[in-house]
Amino acid sequence: MRVRVKVGVALQAMAADSALLLGLVEEFVTGQQDSKAEETATGVKNGQFTILQLVEALGLSLTSSEPQTRGRGVQLLSQVLQQCYGNLQESEVEVLVTFYENRLKDHYVIMPHVLEGLKALTKCLVLPPGSAVSILKSVFQDAHVQSLMLAQRSCVYCILINLMDSREEELKGLGSDFVFGFVQSMDGERDPRNLLLAFQIARKIITQGYEMGKFTEEFFEVTSCYFPIDFTPPPNDPHGITQEELILSLRAVLTGSQRFAEYLLPLIVEKLDSDVQSAKVDSLQTLAACGSLYGHKELSEFLPGLWSSLRREVFQTASEKVETAGLSAVSALVASLSRSVLSSDSEDVLHVFLDLILKDCLHHLAEPDLKLVWPSAKILQAASNASYRASLKVMSAVMPSLLEQYNTQTQCSQRRTLLEVLQGFVQPSLHGTEHGEDNVLVEFQKPLCSAVFSALAESSAGLQITATRLLTSLGKQSGLLPLSDLELSVHHLTRLVLEEQDAQVSLAVMECCGALAYIYPEAFAMRMVPRLKEAIFSEPMVEGDRPCPSDSNSQQAVRRRCVTALASVSSQPSLVQESVPVLLQILTSAHTGRDSFSSDEVTSVCHSLQRIAEQAGQDPEVGQIFHDIVIPRLLGLAIQAALQGEDSSGRNSLLKDEAVLSAIVPVLSAVCARLHSELASLMASRAVRLFLDGDVSFLPENAFPSNLQLLKAHPDSCYQTRTVCLLMACVCSLPRSVEIPEVDRLLVELEELSFTCLHPFSYTSAAKCFAGLINKRPEGTALDAMLESTTKRLTAEVENQSPMRMQAFTLLLWVAKALLLRYHPLSTSLTDKLFSLLGDSELASHAADGFYLLMSDSPDVLNRGCHANVRIMYRQRFFAENSAKLVQSFNSAVPERKAAYLKALSHMVNNLPKQVQLTELPALLPLLLEALSCPDQGVQLSTLSCLQPVLLDPPAALTTQLDGLVARLLALNSSPSMKVRIASLRCILALSHLPDHLVLPFRAKILQALAVPLDDKKRLVRKEAVLARGEWFLLGNPGR
Amino acid sequence: MSGGTRLENANPLVFQRSGERLLTATDEDENVADPIDDREIFDILIRTVLSQSINDPEHPLSLEELNVVEQLRVNVNDQDSTVAVEFTPTIPHCSMATLIGLSIKVKLLRSLPGRFKIDVHITPGTHASEDAVNKQLADKERVAAALENSQLLEVVNQCLSSRAISGE
């Protein structure tokens, strides 16, 4: 009983389902409701109906005599198949394939749906054997692919791709008929999307080894007819196909098989004759791509033709792209010829080809002042870099002749060219060393070194510079700079450091020293550093009682070069060990007043120390040296100098100077920022104990008073409190993970100092140090409580007309910055305070400049190098939140207060990334134009510098304001400040690049106005005027 | 006068370019007046480019690299407001001599204050039809007439356009 009920229910359900299905079919076919296909597919997927039932339900539609109705029926079936091909049985697929193959012969309106259906079926895993072949045969026979619409052609290609993926063996059974069918299908294809598919199929045919038989040439023809590809995607192309994509996929086809060589190589030679540069580049790159597959068998016949085209391109081209592509092609050809296995009877094609090259290029090397020397040298270098065998042959032909010429030539410029060419050949390459073979150049090592030494001894700057580069190249390769020559090199370099006055030669020498010292540290430690030290501390020649001024000048210059050289060579710990004590000794003498060092020299010593610390990176050995020796010495000297400042009778130490202190700061920060965790914690506690408790135990030469209180403000002396900048350098640049001991007490002392100290340098440094610590302090009640009390005091001091208002303002500014960077919620109330100060009678201008500080990176604190907590895009965020406020207060301000707002605005805009500027500018343009007429030169300059990049890519809003802009810019041409004149001329130049129809109306006016700055009294202004006027003359003229 | 496809001189002598003029402290001092000097005029002229082959206007050699203009042959007197420039065609039969001269002249006319008297001529003894070219260049009306010719103006402007020197 129960069973019967169940069956009955099931039967009823089936009856209901089939009625439903008939309804769906009816609504889709005659009701034209496309959405029903989706519902049907869902039903099939759920198992509600089977494909068989669907076909039965479709019965009438599929056999209708109306092509439209048949089409609609097939469409429904195909759309369902596209979703449900995975559920089909093999027998179902077989029936459906036969059905669809028959439909291919049907009316053309049905064709699209038939192809869609076949495409779905080819994705079936259960496609019965033999179906693949029969589908293909039917498609090739009955569908004339190129007469189909775009989407259907794409369908055919997809069918091919699907079958190639799953039924490779069966398709290969078709023999060359498959290739023939494909060739016929794609012949004449024009759509880039379909071409990408067709090239994909072609590439598969080659890589999977389908038989091409007698259709090889047809296959090549039908693909190569697109070469070189010239395709510009339409604007707003939704498909995103690029020329590059097409080029690469076609290239993969053309260069995919050796069998195409006989067709491809002549084609390349022909296309190289083209006048279109992109065609040339494409041809050359295609040729280079052939190199990886072709061997001498494919190439040998075409080498003379290819070479003459290549030579012509490299010799005559004006384009760097063509030249680069040509040189890579030469390299690729040589490399592929070098790989080919020789048969005993044939000649070595590599040698034949290289002989061709040498014959045409070598003689140009003998004319070093003519233009072709360079392209010839580059070709030979490309050939020689391609393989070891090639380099053997090229070098043995080139080197002796170049070296001989170099030795016989007398003209400086020619010798320089020769040396530069030599350097190109000596460039380190991979060959030789990787196979354990000797470097090809070892044979020429002696003459090369002596050429370098002779050039270093010349007086020509160009020759010397080239020689240093050649020397660097030699040093970088093993076996080319043996010990004796290395020692001689160091000797020459040392001499140049000591004697050479030309700035460019000096720079080249320093670079060379840096590169070689990295490889050969011992030689420099033993032979260069001691001599530099000697030169630094040698007494200047004394004539009578005092050194004559020119001599002391040059003594200073020598010292400066020595100091720079010490920094350049100190890349390895062993050298740092030698050079750092010398630098510290200079500081010590500057402190004691011996050896007459100037404060400039002392700062340059600090720069060198900083550079050494920076180039050492995270090297733990160097970090240890700096931590153990350099920092204690620097702190000790600076504090001794500060204490000395108290008694006026003492000697005058240079380390008291603010400039010198400021130069020591980056040394300390650079070191502390790179310390590893253990040393960093030690550093933090030492610095804090030194400044809070006067604990001097880690400083050398312990001669300090016992009650040292560096952070207590003295009303009459600034020397001691200034050292707070050293505290800042030490504790504010440590990694964020390092905990600062007694940070609360430290903050209290710093706050007190910055509120009460009278000396700007001291209270500013204290404020910076406070801000640096606040910025890194973890969130929590401790921080909030601290900030609350500080803010209260700040507000009170700034709002009252207290004598310490400036101090409070400085602290406000720095704390605001520290909080702004980390997105702290309190930052808003502080920056709002700054905004309100723009209307203050006393502080307005300082507040405006404060916005520069907020928006730009500070060099010594609160930057990423100091591990500060800087959130990304804080500038954009600040700008977005406040620009409207600023504009509003500007509009409501009294006229005499407006300048401060404009200044603040231009600082804010100027520091935004360019993309943001472009989007924000339209709203701000009227204000910026106003800023141009503001009398403050700083505002003018900063506005001009933010306008100029915008003008290169102007927003639409600008075009309506051009009149006003031009008038204001021209007015600034008579500004008393040359910087403003220059900046406004640059803007005028930028305007000339706007679309002609916008700017042509101004041409006459501007040409006339620009005649005036042509006669400006400053040359730098005239230079800009000449540039701008030249461009405006060309505007609207032929030949621009 | 146009280059055509064949290069008149495919492998010319190439001279080294002088470096950028070094900035001195007085250059940036507002109160010091810098007189117009030879080097300044020379710097203006070396931005002029010889579109040696009209096919490749992108990377032509500059007048300096071809030694057509040398600083030695530029003479300025700021006080008397005179400029004299001698230029040397690359080869004695150079068909571009007039064009080069015209380009130099136009460049100076556009770049110098109106008070200057500008004299452009060929370095004596370096060109076959030296006198004829000099005469053309000195004749104000012929220069003006030449610039009315839009084809000629186009070639001159090509030599003077900054696009041509952007490859520096």
Automatic annotation (TrEMBL), chain A:
Gene Ontology CC, one term: cytosolic [4Fe-4S] assembly targeting complex
Domain MMS19 C-terminal: 563-991
Pfam families, sorted: MMS19_C, MMS19_N
Domain MMS19 N-terminal as annotated: residue spans: 55-316
Keyword terms of this UniProt record: Cytoplasm, Cytoskeleton, DNA damage, DNA repair, Nucleus, Repeat
Subcellular location: Cytoplasm, Cytoskeleton, Spindle; Nucleus
SUPFAM superfamilies with a match to the protein in the record: ARM repeat
Protein origin, superkingdom: Eukaryota
Function: Key component of the cytosolic iron-sulfur protein assembly (CIA) complex, a multiprotein complex that mediates the incorporation of iron-sulfur cluster into apoproteins specifically involved in DNA metabolism and genomic integrity. In the CIA complex, MMS19 acts as an adapter between early-acting CIA components and a subset of cellular target iron-sulfur proteins.
GO BP term, example: protein maturation
Naturally occurring in which organism (per UniProt): Denticeps clupeoides
Major location (coarse): cytoplasm
PANTHER family: DNA REPAIR/TRANSCRIPTION PROTEIN MET18/MMS19 (PTHR12891), MMS19 NUCLEOTIDE EXCISION REPAIR PROTEIN HOMOLOG (PTHR12891:SF0)
Quaternary data: Component of the CIA complex.
Family to which the UniProt record says this protein belongs: Belongs to the MET18/MMS19 family.
The gene coding this protein: MMS19
InterPro entries registered for this protein in UniProt: ARM-like (IPR011989), ARM-type_fold (IPR016024), MMS19 (IPR039920), MMS19_C (IPR024687), MMS19_N (IPR029240)
Coiled-coil region: none
Leader sequence segment: none
Protein name, per record: MMS19 nucleotide excision repair protein
UniProtKB/TrEMBL annotation, chain B:
A Gene Ontology BP annotation from the UniProt entry: protein maturation
Gene Ontology cellular component terms for the protein in this record: cytosolic [4Fe-4S] assembly targeting complex
InterPro entries: FSCA_dom_sf (IPR034904), MIP18 (IPR039796), MIP18-like (IPR002744)
Kinase in keyword set: no
Alphabetic keyword roster: Chromosome partition
One family name in Pfam for this protein: FeS_assembly_P
Residue ranges of domain MIP18 family-like in the record: 46-120
Primary role: Component of the cytosolic iron-sulfur protein assembly (CIA) complex, a multiprotein complex that mediates the incorporation of iron-sulfur cluster into extramitochondrial Fe/S proteins. As a CIA complex component and in collaboration with CIAO1 and MMS19, binds to and facilitates the assembly of most cytosolic-nuclear Fe/S proteins. As part of the mitotic spindle-associated MMXD complex it plays a role in chromosome segregation, probably by facilitating iron-sulfur cluster assembly into ERCC2/XPD.
Subunit annotation: Component of the CIA complex. Component of the MMXD complex, which includes CIAO1, ERCC2, CIAO2B, MMS19 and SLC25A5. Interacts with CIAO1, ERCC2 and MMS19; the interactions are direct. Interacts with KIF4A; the interaction facilitates the transfer of Fe-S clusters to KIF4A to ensure proper localization of KIF4A to the mitotic machinery. Interacts with CCDC117; the interaction is direct.
Family statement: Belongs to the MIP18 family.
Protein name: Cytosolic iron-sulfur assembly component 2B
The species this protein was found in: Denticeps clupeoides
Taxonomic classification: Eukaryota, Metazoa, Chordata, Craniata, Vertebrata
